[in-house]
Amino acid sequence: MATTDKYDRQLRLWGASGQRALGNTMVVLLGSSACGTETLKNLVLPGVGSFLVVDDGDEASSSEAADAAAQGVQKCPELDSSMLQFGEQSSNFFLPAPSKVATGGDDGNNNKKLSKAAISCALLSELNPDVLGFHYTVPSLEGLDYSALLEKIKQDPPSDGSSSSATTTTTLPQKILVIAADQPSTVTLPLSYECHNRSIPLLVVRSYGLLGYARIQTATPYHCITEAKKSNRIPDLRLSAWPLFEGLKNVASTVSNLDEMDDTKDHSHVPFVIVLLQALDKWRGTVVSAPFNPDPAVRPRYPETFQEKEDFRKLVKGMAKNLNNEINFEESIREAHLTWVDGRVSDEVKEVLDRVDEKEFFASAVKSEMDVEGSATSSVPAHVLQFQLLALALKRFLKQNDDYPPLEGKIPDMTSDTARFVALQEAYQKQAEQDRATICEIAKALLDECKQASNGCDLHVSIPSDDEIVTFCKNARYLRILETRPLFAEYKVQDPASPTLSILKPTSFENIPNFDTIQADARDDLQSAMFDPYETDPIQTPLLWWIALRACDAFYDRHEHYPGKHEQELALESDANEVYKFMTQIATNLGLSECDFIKEHLLDSSKGKDLAREVVRYDEAEIHNIAAVVGGVASQEAVKLITGQYVPFDDTYVYNGIASTAGVYRF
């Protein structure tokens, strides 16, 4: 089957550019748990470029691990039925029973035993022959040198040396996404730090009993969203802009006066754009007694109040000769709001543009004089530099055009005769092309200024392709960025006494921009969320269960195992009491101790301890259907991070399988 046919449906969601981004990405999965493999499965199926499964196992001794690190990771093995014996002991159908995931030796019948990473890699690779799969087995994920691992993947990614059906990897992956599945803080915190330093996005997923969550850590400095894909996009027709652009003015002038048009057929085929423009002129002269002023410097009146808007709609309705037979006038009434909707960029877009500083861009874009043969790379990823370049060009464009962004150049379907519709379409397309050319010229000027300021040094960024400029300009009204706090910084706030924090250097927390601001905003967001609990049963509010899960992590930090390991009743109750203690501390550290909802449902010892007993009862069990839900959500967000399309959640999705409810919170 041709690749374009196989991916036909998803191409309708994220297009060819999104599919290219997916195909140029390597996903690194740490931990082959059910949640991890479910997440990766949903990325292999749509055609991610390659993936690497890293997990612990007896297959690698400490000396073998050193050799493996030096040699690189391994291609997925070929499996036969003798290697796979699925049993009741396994909670992950991507893995056989533990008896077959063992030492990497023989089982007495000359059957090679493979590690969890090798088997899950092989089974996931079977889902899509276009995707390259690799595995890497280490003695333990705790204490692994993630700095060396990530650096090797970035500089020397694994490649397919065989003649498999998958395409050989010959170039560096343009993007890397790391997924940590069901890992303790002793793994996620150092991993979070290294990903933050290398500007690599990180997804942390967890399935724990009937609960689960997915947490996004965006790449630094932020995640750029060029195509937000808003479902309620307003057509960019510029009917409220003044003066009208020349092409639209010329097309509108082809219809002199609708009231004097005798031909009913012709009258019923005038596009609603022209109808609304004539209605505006009529409304100014008759309804508000504000006659047209030909001076382009004087902005004419537009409907503003509710009554003025209603009067305008009535005027449009009265202009029809026979409303029941004139669909174009029905469209005009329906789209009347386009005459007063402000086409300037929103405050949200202005906030995005304010984040892009010209001096910082120049500093990041210039290659250092110490670079040897262009080998050094910018601390800011290439795709972010391109976004910043176009954003700076857009800022200058807005200053020149009264805050109006480049025209999209697309008009909606409308009732019209062919000649007028084509003329209207060509007018909008021509103006959009002119605006895009202006953006391109400004971008070139910015790069020239950057070179001059650096005495002619080479740059890490160049003019984007025509397709990229077209995409940026078409979506200029909906640009977004997402910046999340690093996981290790979040953890310091929630559990500052955690022994795991000692893994990190004291200087790790010094270079986190806007730390206090993000913390204050997160606290305010969480307090606001407490006013919207789960209605059916407030105790099932996902945030309460997330605090319980974080308390389990705090328990692990102190005891190196999760609560519930010892099944004696006294031990379980003791674990529950300790988990509850951590829950109260975390709630206090989050600034929630004064919230009435938290006081009633968590700080109240009876209700809070019920939550603690429930998570202790789980004993870190993983239920595959819960893992499938969390993995499905996580993979959806992974696609958003990879493609730069749609808006990911900010920043943690919590799933409560007890009540089948979920919430998104910012920590």
Automatic annotation (TrEMBL):
<dbReference type="GO" id="GO:0005737">
    <property type="term" value="C:cytoplasm"/>
</dbReference>
<dbReference type="InterPro" id="IPR045886">
    <property type="entry name" value="ThiF/MoeB/HesA"/>
</dbReference>
<protein>
    <submittedName>
        <fullName>NEDD8-activating enzyme E1 regulatory subunit</fullName>
    </submittedName>
</protein>
<dbReference type="InterPro" id="IPR035985">
    <property type="entry name" value="Ubiquitin-activating_enz"/>
</dbReference>
<dbReference type="GO" id="GO:0019781">
    <property type="term" value="F:NEDD8 activating enzyme activity"/>
</dbReference>
<dbReference type="GO" id="GO:0045116">
    <property type="term" value="P:protein neddylation"/>
</dbReference>
